[in-house]
Design a protein that fits this description.
Layout (H helix, E strand, L loop, with lengths): L6 H8 L5 H12 L1 H4 L4 H8 L3 H10 L5 H15 L2 H11 L5 H19 L2 H13 L3 E5 L4 H14 L3 E5 L3 H8 L7 E5 L6 H12 L3 E6 L12 E4 L3 E3 L2 E3 L1 H17 L1 H17 L9
Parallel strand pairs: 1-2, 1-3, 3-4, 4-5
Antiparallel strand pairs: 6-7
């Protein structure tokens, strides 16, 4: 329960009927959602002057199973609302200049760990099966997620004949290049906070045309998840104004590996041809090491 709840809308719609203690929590969250999203129930209660159990009841009255589900939704909602300036301010409040290296590495390690532990293996297997059966594969992304899309397309283009990359183009261009999409095709949308409207529109259109849609995103309630048959989630954190894409890249690596194991013979032939071409045209530096 609670995965599709809009945290801020729920707080505002329930505010009139809230108790005095719950109103204090609601007001603090609406004014300080950046800080609140990282607080435990105990620390949030101590900050506003109520008990930990009051904070838990507050979350449940909004429709969540408990505080962890409420906090997860608040983090997702918070990340989609933050401007780049606010991201820098939030990061500055959480990390000292002298421990940036350790903090960033630790964050990436933790995000990959969470992604592994929380990953939906059934959705992953379904996505792999759909990709293997697809006549054409479309990969859609914008902004920082484009780096992930380019990486995925590079390796998929070695494995498959028909791979189309749609990144950093406007909605009209995306729809123009997607209008022939069919039930035989797969559309992979990659989107992390702050979510791209272009990618969401592409997923909605492709789903309506009957294509198999795969979302690579940070949560089951991200905008592109609602138009995806298979949702693959990876933890996405903030490092200053930059997104941490370590876990999403690891997930995409797993997707490439799973597909390649099923297409081992074809990939072997492709790389034999490529190696001859690379040698013939002296693509790579020769080294004795």
């Amino acid at each position: 329960m609670g995965s599709s709840i809009d945290v801020f809308a729920a707080i505002k719609s329930n505010y009139g009927s809230m108790s005095k203690g719950h109103r204090k929590i609601a007001e603090y969250i609406l004014e300080n959602y950046q800080k609140a999203s990282f607080m435990t129930a105990l620390s949030l209660g101590q900050t506003v002057g109520v008990s930990e159990s009051t904070v838990v009841r507050f979350a449940m009255e909004l429709g969540f199973d408990g505080y962890p589900g409420f906090q997860d939704n608040l983090k997702t909602a918070m990340k989609s609302k933050l401007t780049s300036v606010q991201r820098i301010e939030l990061a500055s409040s959480q990390m000292d200049k002298n421990d940036v290296f350790d903090k960033v590495m630790s964050l990436d390690i933790e995000l990959i760990r969470q992604t592994r532990e929380n990953g939906d293996r059934e959705a992953f297997a379904g996505a792999v099966d759909a990709i293997l059966k697809a006549k054409k594969i479309y990969i859609v992304a914008s902004r920082s997620a484009s780096a992930l899309a380019v990486f995925l397309r590079y390796y998929f283009s070695i494995i498959f004949d028909e791979v189309v990359l749609l990144n950093n183009i406007d909605t009209s261009d995306i729809l123009q290049r997607l209008f022939r999409v069919s039930e035989d095709d797969v559309v992979i949308g990659i989107s992390f906070p702050r979510y791209s409207k272009h990618t969401n529109i592409a997923m909605e259109y492709a789903s309506g045309k009957g294509a198999t849609t795969i979302a690579v995103t940070d949560s089951q309630h991200s905008p592109i998840a609602k138009n995806a048959k298979h949702v693959l989630t990876a933890g996405s954190g903030m490092v200053s104004f930059a997104d941490s894409l370590a876990a999403p890249l690891s997930l995409i690596n797993a997707l490439i590996a799973a597909v390649s194991l099923e297409k081992e013979a074809e990939i072997g032939r492709s790389f034999e041809t490529l190696e001859h071409l690379w040698d013939e045209y002296d693509v790579y530096e020769k080294t004795d090491r």
